[in-house]
Amino acid sequence: MGKLQCLMKSDNGSLVCFLFFLGDITQKGYEKKRSKLLQAYLPHTPGNTHTPYFTKQHTRRIPVTPSSSSSSSSRYQRRRSTGTRDERYRSDVHSEAVQAALEQHSERKMAVLLPSKRQSLIGQTSMDTYTPPDSSSGSDAEGSLGRAGGVSMDSWISRALHGSPSTSSSSSSHSNSSANAARLAETNMHSYSSKNSIIAYMCVGVPVSSRVSAKIQQLVNTLKRPKRRPLREFFVEDFEELLEVQQPDPSLPHPEGAESTPIQGEELNGLKNCPSSLEAALLRWGAIASKAPCLTTTHSNAKQPYTLTYGKLWSKSLKLAYNLLHKLGSKQEPIIHPGDRVALVYPNNDPAAFMVAFYGCLLAEVVPVPIEVPLTKKDAGSQQIGFLLGSCGVAVALTSDACHKGLPKSASGDVMQFKGWPKLLWVLTDSKHLSKPPREWFPLIKDANNDTAYIEYKTCKDGSVLGITVTRMAMLTHCQTLTHTCGYSEAETMVNVLDFKKGIGLWHSVQTSVLNMLHVVSVPYALMKVNPLSWIQKVCQYKAKVVCVKSRDLHWALMAYKEQSDTNMSSLRMLLIADGSNPWSISSCDAFLKVFQSMGLRSEVICPCAGSPEALTVAVRRPQEGSPKPAGRGVLSMTNLSHGVIRVDTGEKLSVLALQDVGTAMPGAMVCVVKLEGVPQLCKTDEIGEICVSSVATGTSYYGLTGMSKNTFEVGLVSDCVFVRSGLLGFVGPGEMIFISGTLEGLMQVGGRKHNADDIIATALAVEPMKFIYRGRTVVFSVNVLYDERIVLVAEQRPDSTEEESYQWMSRVLQAIDGIHQVGVYCLALVPANTLPKTPLGGIHLSETKQLFLEGALHPCSILMCPHSCITNLPKPRQKQPEVGPASVMVGNLVAGKRMAQASGRDLSHMEDNEQFLFLSEVLQWRAQTTPDHILYTLINTRGAIGSSLTCLQLHKRAEKIATLLYERGQLQDGDHVALVFSPGLDLIAAFYGCLYAGCIPITVRPPHPQNISTTLPTVKMILEVSRSVCVMTTQAISKLLKSRDASVAVDFKSWPPILETDDLPKRRCPLLYKPCDPDSLAYLDFSVSTTGMLAGVKMSHNATSALCRSVKLQCELYPSREVAVCLDPYCGLGFVLWCLCSVYAGQQSVLISPMDLEVNPALWLQSVSQFKVRDTFCSYSVMELCIRSLSSLTDSLKARGMDLTRVRSCVVVAEERPRVALTQSFCKLFKDVGLHPRAVSTAFGCRVNLAICLQGTSGPDPTTVYVDMRALRHDRVRLVERGSPHSLPLMESGKILPGVRIIIANPETKGPIGDSHLGEIWVHSPQNASGYFTVLGEENVRSDHFGARLSFGDTQTVWARTGYLGFLRRTDLTDASGERHDALYVVGALDEVMELRGMKYHPIDIETSIIRAHRNITECAAFTWTNLLVVVVELDGSEQEALDLVPMVTNVVLEEHYLIVGVVVVVDTGVIPINSRGEKQRMHLRDGFLADQLDHIYVAYNM
User: Fold this and answer.
1) 234 pLDDT exceeds 60?
2) Pfam families attached here (predicted)?
């Protein structure tokens, strides 16, 4: 036992550690043993009457107090020597609770994934970048959530937390896999990821490997672990939008007591000889005690304190009153009249000037509005203060000379016009600037009446500022009640540390002091920062009777205290704790009493009070000499409090909140507790509610806001009494003592339970934060996401803490809050030091911080999102219903009178001259003979002039020479495959027809990009290999590029097939041109990489090629006299057909513009269309985007240079995707000024199986747009809604169905036909269908029936090609060219791209559209899935420091609009997301690059 005592005396922590090693001891056993061992050391001072009134069991929760006061202070010194610790928000009970919660979690080992960060971003929080904040890091000022906490035995907590083995920093293993162009094979990818997903968990869950795929696998594993029982889902995504009515859970705690009754304060007996108003009091003391000191103030730099006497206060106030009424403006038109509002702008170190101004206004019957001094043009919350001044009609601001000098000035030397502020006349109130009033002038001193005396401002939760009006009668009565309860008597000395401009500081040190002729010693905030003990020194120096402080002032004094023999606090009869209503102030009070009890401080002197701007003082604990009435304490269960129920903690749980009483109701006041929700009604006795006060001494309204005032200041509850809401939450306990548990402003309702922001902060700060964050700079608020509030915690991070340490601390905070409050934190963000917006007194400005978070402008340096644990109200996952058979569907549709979804273009029967030829090579020869000089192709150069052109004869002759080249130099046979690697131009066209003349099969291939050869060259090589090309035909320049050193690094030159250069062609032409005998034989191969990363080559027969050309010719009415402008990539799909084939077939002149040239001259395409007076033009989405991006500000100059698009009849966007409505609409709006008609812009649709299914063409109705319900689409249903409906998605018709094309909509699973306006796969039957796949790389299990599908019911004979796209047909009321009702085809998206999450189907483009709107810095994004996780990649257009802003914005918008949780957010530079030539995102390339760590991401966030 001797050893135990020795341990006990040396350190509390070691005792506890010793107890832990005694063996397997239970919590109850530990408690018992602990109390037994500590009994000898517990004090038995008769003065300490703070006994819990609820139950005797809680005596053990009183903090451990050493046997003597001297040892206590020396122990305090020892504790301080280890580093000045900020003990606010501290409580022994809470520290133990947090430790227990963390221990429970440590058994579960919660995995926290460190985000991947670019090195440049990690450097941003270095010591050099940020200056460390001043020594008063905890300077949590008046407006902030500053709360103090007491001394506690917590060294063992730090040992328990930091004793765990630390982790090694995660090594980043960048894989160096080859940048394979297609990077496509899903099969390889799956096996690839499984090899890398073996994760070593460490003791705090930080993985060894930072490999992206491994981290995702770890995240998946984490999410698979069972979560705690989810909250009842109160939002059910029913198709009919029915919200489930939440049934109250009978097992939850609910109030069981009787209805509470209002409590009545004692009678306010008329105070003897009391003045009839404050002005009368000032007049009295100014006359009979002019030398009596009124206010003594000390500046931190001044040697001598300044004392203002009552005589001086009277004379100065009188002088100011006269000047306000008679010296501003002219005699005929004075600027200020009685009743006008004026602003009082005084710094916190000048209470004397403020007091003079305040009483000067009262004497002049002008209404003062005290506000904070604006320090900069962009002060946090300054704009809202301006709105208050504007709404109060303030035109004059009173200030002191010194303060005026410090205000921001404009160039002219006047005070700057602050944002949102009215224009103000600044009046200096120092005596030297004022005229002396004439002797005969005297203000009218009235009795207190119901005129407004002053307006006090208050900042709300949302940042808005309200002005609370207080009448002269209320002000006087309030001073009288304070005099009565605090026992003030004439000439007493009071020390004030509080802000004298508002609240308790104003009420006691400016108003009540004058009523009672008190001497106030003011200790300014600046002095407290330099010397936290200054207020105690003043108490001793002046033998003060009363002192007004906040609990943080007690705490700071304790921190700075060194034992001094001359400290004597026995003169104090009242230590008023302004924030005593805050539960977290208790431990500061206890610790302070413990240390200073030996210096004459009595326990009954400590008087917590509660007040609010609306209700003024609600309650004060009376200073009782000899204390007949013990103070009240209670330890309540926090879980029950979250349900609004008061339950005494039984000692089993550690989730508790200790409360102290704030005294009883004020004299003459009635107090009741009202339910928080619904119509105002009294709470039950065991229920938490809002404290309401009925008294003369309260505020009367919010200035100028009658509606809000009625709700707050006119609550009718009992008989004819009108109550005022105080904004304080609490209950009335035994002995009519009032207990406050929190504030309405700090209340957050999450999942039906209420949590107080202060309690959450206290829990976070109990997790040893000193190494990582600044304690006084932590805020908690809630944001609304998906029909509920979500908790966000923001703190300033210390510059010297590493990222890994910060994330470990953040993860422990999450665990602690989960364990103590049973609530998840949605987002935890750490920002660099000194970056959060501050209030004028140095605390963090809550609403401004929240606004920055919501706008994505907080710029955090570390962020942890935990949506998986917080969002428990997602719609229920969709259950797969057993499929109805195709026959039943068809019969059901017929019975219901619904048409089956099928449509077709017009017939192809009519033949013309050139249509007698089956082969394009024959058509070219025929044109060379009949119209040799007719120009077929004109290529525009970058300057907009004609670079070169080809007539029918020139093209024919050139093709002949190329055929000779193939025969002679290439030694090629009929049917050999030749790769044509050319830039967009006329060489490509000639080479194509040369191949046809030689009987070879051409494959057009995009040449490698010279600036990006290492990634683009392997694609070229791969297409050559899979197309089995025996020869490459190209120009000399590209041939050189293929042989260059850079190229040989990516692909060995020796591995290329023979290369033929077309720059030097044979002089003689081919003696015999090849004539194909079978129209179904192969004409060319069309290779393309789909958006899903599949490289597919389709076989185009001569027959299909001719049918396609003929179909386009009919739809677009193409003839030799027509001119068409084409700005497309000529390598695949309809782009290639329009560039190379249509002009030869139909004879029109094609004006060709290379999309690559637009990067040099963005206006080239539109200038060419205008210059050549073209009526029909074709482009791609990427061309359209480039024009919008580059020409958006140049439309006026283009118009001035003569651009005119009025002749354009059709501008068709060629694409293989859903029409991008927003993009086409933006394009139309932008170029409307240069004559582009919105009706001209339309889209085409093609795919691998049929290169052109729809094309708007020249005749027929305009394309229509419908709005569908996005939520119905997720369930494979089409539900049409009105424009602007919630969740509506605009879908534009994809052009008119081409002649000869038949379409049907089929169920992709059952292959049965589907009814009109139902979603299914688009199937097509047409002579222009491709013959089949030549090769498919990247999806070996591709559907074999792509080209030969048959319906399982109905018309089972027709052979269809499956497009792989989802869409629907809808019969419109419009009439097409043939006079029939028009059938519109709407493409929804590719089947391969559909992401199935939670049983519902999502199209990436919908999620991406929402994300791009979420933040101005997101230029592009892509979404894909990986092992059931949604991964979002966003391109950041901004500094890397802003990367982390995007994480919550992306998470929020996807939750709100799509009810999905984003698993991983990747932030990359602009241009990283790969886009193909058609402007489509290559999401699977991106996915492969991401999983192989090849993206060079700025930041990767793993949402927990």
Assistant:
1) no
2) AMP-binding, AMP-dom_DIP2-like, DMAP_binding
